[in-house]
Give the backbone structure.
Amino acid sequence: MNRPGTVVEVGRSTPPILVHNGDSVVLQRFPPGTRVVYPPDPLPGLRDPDGAIRRALLNPLDCEPLPALLHPGMRLTIAVDDISLPLPPMRWPDVRARVLEAVLDLAADAGVDDVEILIATSLHRRMTAAEVLHAVGRRVFDAFWPDRLRNFDAEDPAALVEVGTTEQGEVVEVSRRAATSDLLVYVNITLVAMDGGHKSVAVGLASYRSLRHHHNVHTLRHTRSLMDPPHSALHHSCDRMGRLLERHMKVFKIETTLNNDTFPAALGFLNRREGEWTPRDHAVARMVASTTAMLPPAQARAVFHRTRAPYALTGVFAGATEPVHARALESLYRQQVVPVRGQSDVLTVGIPYVGPYNVNSIMNPVLVFCMGLGYFFNMYRGMPLVRRGGVLILTHPCRAEFHPVHHPSYIDFYEQVLAETRDPVRMEAEYEERFASDAWYRQLYRRSHAYHGVHPFYMWFWGAHALEHLGDVVVVGGDRAACRRLGFRSASTLEDALEMASQTVGTHPSVTHLHCPPLFVCDVEPGGFETGVP
Amino acid sequence: MRALECTPTLPGYALSRLVGGTRGGPFTMLRLAHRAAPALPGEGWVRLRPRLAGVCGSDVAALTGHASPYLGALASSPFVPGHEVVATVAEAGERWTEGARVVVEPLLHCGVRGVVPPCPRCAAGEPQGCESVAGEGLAPGLQTGYCATTGGGWATELVAHQSQLHAVPAQLDDRDAVMVEPLACALHAVLRTRPGPDDRVLVVGAGTLGLLVIAALRYAARPGRVIAVAKHPEQRRLAARLGADAVAEPRTMLRTVRFETGARMVEGRAVDPFLLGGADVSFECSGSATGLQDAIACTRAGGTVVMAGMPGRASLDLAPAWHRELTLRGAYGYGVETASAAGRGVEPPRRTFDVALEAALALRPGRLVEAPHSLEDYREALARAASAGSRGAVKVAFAPQRAPGGLRG
């Protein structure tokens, strides 16, 4: 029987709680009265994933079956989500590979010759050949790479077309190949509620000219939250853009959902509640914690970045974008939603080793900011888990270490922009354009494997809502200088961090800890958790 | 008189390179001596009592054995260092009254040496390139402070030709005045190069000269953007205050220049990263080989690298300079400026020192001078000067008239 997510109150005999700490983990004692929010157990996967995919393609929502949309002489483009999904990367076979093979088999049966596959990178970095191979599988890779399977290039003027402008003046400029095809099939992994829907095409295949209409401070401040699309200004903008796109092009959307079986058996303790650990789990946990803490950062990273998630497919939905997305969200929320009553003064979370923007890479301080204030802060519907003016406590070493190939513009953002200001409005006004139009960054984005020059700004804007909401942010174990650069404070221990937090929220604050990953989203209702007085 | 006297010897040179010659004492080149005051070499010479005398990076390099031997051939020993001097006229002369407060323009050119006719460089109005400095008229010496005949500022007396003296305006205090000579060096480097309003200018090194170059750029040239590279936090703070638009540490220099100029960075095997593109003009003010190599790496094709800081012997990769057709030029001393200081309403040609005195009124560089030392405290003073940046200091100076053990004020 799969247990739902739950909220456990820490008592005096509660064992230490596992907290992610970048490329390591720590076992942490929390003060009595702390609420620990645990994710639901993993739902069982579909017994016949390939069969479910085929059935979805043949029985889509509000749309003709896919074979009816395929004919000889047509131009077909298939887009897939990029390296940022899923997290961690899943073990073979990746769900994209399954879906692609099913679609391509139907296309081949229909005699479609003109087929190209685009990695919907948007302004993310280009995937390497090895990464693409893992995502699409050997059969598709050998048949299509590199001429007909490539990363989308949002900085190639010849590869872009302006489709139109929304009623709110938002310019929609996307892949020319996609917009001028007879059919665009988009293959999603809806890992969290932020993903999928109209956002896939409107962001994944769009240029900077389009993205700036919603990847900006004003929009992100009114996105409450990223995981609650009906209350997200970002998603409203993407919906407007997506609807405009679909007046000009035919889109067949395929969204998949996964369970939250995140870590393989060897690291199974990371999936389980501490009170249910076996002796082996205890031993492995302590060994992983101590070993990774001692290793040089690069080696500790290698331990975790080799991990492949044993995710199972829980749903596959195909057809028109909006009904598909609605069903995908239902499936997703069935796995991820945890009801929580009341906000708290303090929210704590351990930042894991990987986020959307450092797969096979380094989590630099700007990405730590984004993970904490952009993602984990936003893992809610209703209201944030932490009250306005409350304190967010993160656990992460937060070293000023950057991947020079993947994140070159982040280095300059950290050294030049953050040294000058942390105000996202000022950053946007004074620096964004310069980074976005820098010729070197553009060259590295197009020819190397670098995130677009503007991307660190988006990481900062992702936390714009949290910056307005929170009273303070403390990082347990964080590098002092790096934390100071981010506008955070650094504490050696959780106890010290709570002591520092009390200067903001008062003594005996109420504390909630997010036991995440595995990923989940909290449905937060008012009332019921006022203070942490035991 | 009391004087810090330098007698270069081979063993002293070697020992100084090993242990640092600022400590003085036996077997080093520097000692505190009681000796006869220098004689007046002839008509038109004036006896001076130094009020303040600065310690220049070139002095430290000479005393620690890091100056190029080339310069040793243009000095005569024993010499009393100190070429940044504000002094009181000790005896009335033809043009100067007793008690007048003056700064010394230390170049020992033909006009000072009494060489008639003057050498071609002096005749052309370029006294800093004087060809008589190897010993005509006076003992060899590029400047006061490196010449056995004249003495130098690190003493209770020295002599100077009346043409070397400039009256100090009453509005300038002694600390401002002792900075006139290094300010003149900075202005000379800037006015000879004349960066324009579209130019991106890099200043490598933020010791005294680097900071004054930044100030001089803002005062006399007004370039588009000034990027400074400074090793120490206090230097970075001062560089920003004096007008640098962007300030970087050496480790972030390349990325900062790349960012500020929109250049491309190239990383190759067995070569340090460099830029394609970069600053239009770079002023190398540290005098180090690393600084010069970095300046070359950060200057765009067709640009100019100005060696403003006194370099020594260096091993450099000049391929970038060749490939990019850089202009590599020295900027030594001062002389007569033919370029006008931007927007100042001053018509050239003018002596650099005159421009520097006016600039000092506007810039008040005396705030960079810390409390002066007595001659007897020379070990502490020179050690401080040798590591000024890391100690948060800029200009170290002597107050030679101060009695031993007197309070520093």
